[in-house]
Amino acid sequence: MTASTILLDIEGTTTPIDFVYKVLFPYARAHVGDFLARHADDEEVRAAAFELLAERAKDEGQPQSPSSAPGRLDESRLETVATYARRLIDEDRKLTPLKTIQGRIWEEGYRRGELKGQVFPDVERNLRRWREEGRTTCIYSSGSVLAQKLLFANTEAGDLTELIEDFFDTKVGHKTDPLSYLKIAELLPRRPAEVLFVSDVVAELDAAAGAGFQTRLCVRPGNHPQPDTHAHAKIRTLDEVKTEGV
Questions:
Q1: 189 — phi, psi (to 5°)?
Q2: Which residue range(s) make up the domain with 28?
Q3: Which of 15, 153, 176, 230 has the most crowded Cβ, counting Cβ within 10 A?
Q4: Does residue 206 have a pLDDT over 90?
Q5: Based on the domain organization, do 194 and 91 belong to the same domain?
Q6: pLDDT in tens, 51-82
Q7: For the chain, what is the domain count?
Q8: Same-domain check for residues 126 and 235
Q9: Is there a contact between 147 and 106 (Cβ–Cβ < 8 Å)?
């Protein structure tokens, strides 16, 4: 069946892994302390910070302490959140509150011209090709929707967000959970079999296939090695998602 919707991962699929690990993550790590101090009264930032404090207590096997109960972000709490956020960044933890804070930090970086989104050369032409073929393209990444939109709005090829129908993040669920893909299909709305998910991670593709999605494993230079035992066809560029079928 020809897919009517192409659902793309970002890291290792549309964007070099090095951009994430060597540009975006270090930028967030370097700025998180200052960012939290400047935005301690911001409702979204405060909520994310207290979610991280609660998660930290769980990590340490402790009940939620008074210091992690919602309230004011005093200097001690701010330092605790910043230190924990740096640790999570180093561990590449896929926590929604961390991704919220990272997205807000990157927003400032893009606005100041200190960050520029990177995509592989084949991305723009295929986004345009799929639109001409009558297909829709969506993004599903562990990065926040804000971070996704910022990346695609600030590429060297220009603003590509007009070519993307919708963006999904971990608010719909984790990328290794088949239920996340069923929820995306419902939100689009599409039958699962009409959606092709492209990712560089076999565990994500397994989850998507479990939900009835079509899948392709994207093999790019610099991507992390994947298990050899899987049933997903490989592509090396998005050009291989052909008009007549996938």
A1: -85, 145
A2: 21-111
A3: 15
A4: yes
A5: no
A6: 999 999 887 776 655 444 456 677 788 999 99
A7: 2
A8: yes
A9: yes
For 174, the 3-state DSSP assignment is: coil
246 occurs within a structural domain: no
Please give the pLDDT value at position 64: 54
Answer yes or no: are the C-beta atoms of 27 and 160 closer than 8 Å.
Answer: no
**pLDDT given for residue 244 in this prediction:** 47
The per-residue pLDDT for 71 is 63
Residue 243 clears pLDDT 90, i.e. is over it = no
In this prediction, residue 69 carries a pLDDT of 47
As a whole number of angstroms, the distance between CA 167 and CA 160 comes to 13
Choosing from 64, 96, 111, the residue where a domain stops is: 111
Q: Answer for the pair 240, 219: CB distance below 8 angstroms, yes or no.
A: no
Report if residue 245 sits inside a domain.
Answer: no
Examine the fold and report which residue of 92, 111, 130 is the final residue of a domain before the chain moves on: 111
